């Protein structure tokens, strides 16, 4: 693991030990917030995450190409909808509760950080970063570089951006119904559409589309990595074989109770 991954990985896994996050996913409702070190609360829409894919979500999924990797899949509404359509799709999340819920909906999910080794690296056709997940690790350009390595040549990234035209970094903690913060502060980012497009251009991405739907904002970016003659698209068998146990806490899916 290189130095960049070492510095980003602990923040990316911060949700793994978050009791309030796990409790909210199990119950299907909030309140749940990210609390910044300056005291400001950023609300998290747990009820929408735990529901079925809504009309805005379906617009996103209609744009997906080929095999899809959902980074930070949460309780799995995107994964479940794509699986129901017969698509090759894998969700990853560091939270056991998130993976369990995704599996319960009939989707494939793996408990792992985006900065750890993943199945099908360099062969995914589409990567999703929904529900603010462009903020993972507090370093959008670093996350864009990682996603570029996951995608097949010319692959598509669809990211949901902040509602405001912002580009900010903060240290945050997860806060649930009790109002008590859980765990140590970790790095998070909030990025609006103009800022994300700027970061993407600097990292070699080509903007493919921008749109607003239901007061939510999205950006589609096209990767520019050159093709490899040995690359093959990920498939269900490849995903399944990658989940055989080597380290149950990181490499294997969580089996629902």
TrEMBL record:
Its EC number is 2.1.1.222, 2.1.1.64. This is Class I SAM-dependent methyltransferase. InterPro entries: SAM-dependent_MTases_sf (IPR029063). It comes from Streptomyces lienomycini. One of its GO terms (biological process) is methylation. Gene3D superfamilies: Vaccinia Virus protein VP39. Keywords: Methyltransferase, Transferase. It is an enzyme of class 2 (transferase).
């Amino acid at each position: 693991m290189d130095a960049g991954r070492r510095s980003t990985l602990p923040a990316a896994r911060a949700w793994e030990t978050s009791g309030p996050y796990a409790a909210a996913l199990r119950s299907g409702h909030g309140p749940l917030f990210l609390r910044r070190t300056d005291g400001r609360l950023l609300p998290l829409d747990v009820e929408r995450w735990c529901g079925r894919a809504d009309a805005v979500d379906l617009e996103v999924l209609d744009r997906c190409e080929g095999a899809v990797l959902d980074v930070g899949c949460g309780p799995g509404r995107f994964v479940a909808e794509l699986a129901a359509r017969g698509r090759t799709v894998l969700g990853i999340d560091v939270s056991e509760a998130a993976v369990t819920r995704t599996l319960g909906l009939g989707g494939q999910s793996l408990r792992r950080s985006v900065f750890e080794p993943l199945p099908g690296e360099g062969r995914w056709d589409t990567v999703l970063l929904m529900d603010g997940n462009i903020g993972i690790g507090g370093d959008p350009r670093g996350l864009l570089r990682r996603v570029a390595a996951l995608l097949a040549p010319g692959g598509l990234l669809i990211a949901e951006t902040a509602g405001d035209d912002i580009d900010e970094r903060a240290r945050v903690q997860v806060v649930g119904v009790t109002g008590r913060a859980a765990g140590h502060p970790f790095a998070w980012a909030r990025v609006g559409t103009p800022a994300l497009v700027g970061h993407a251009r600097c990292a070699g991405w080509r903007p493919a589309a921008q749109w607003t739907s239901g007061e939510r904002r999205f950006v589609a970016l096209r990767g520019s990595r050159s093709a490899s003659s040995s690359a093959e698209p990920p498939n269900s068998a490849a995903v399944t074989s990658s989940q055989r146990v080597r380290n149950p806490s990181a490499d294997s899916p969580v089996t629902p109770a």
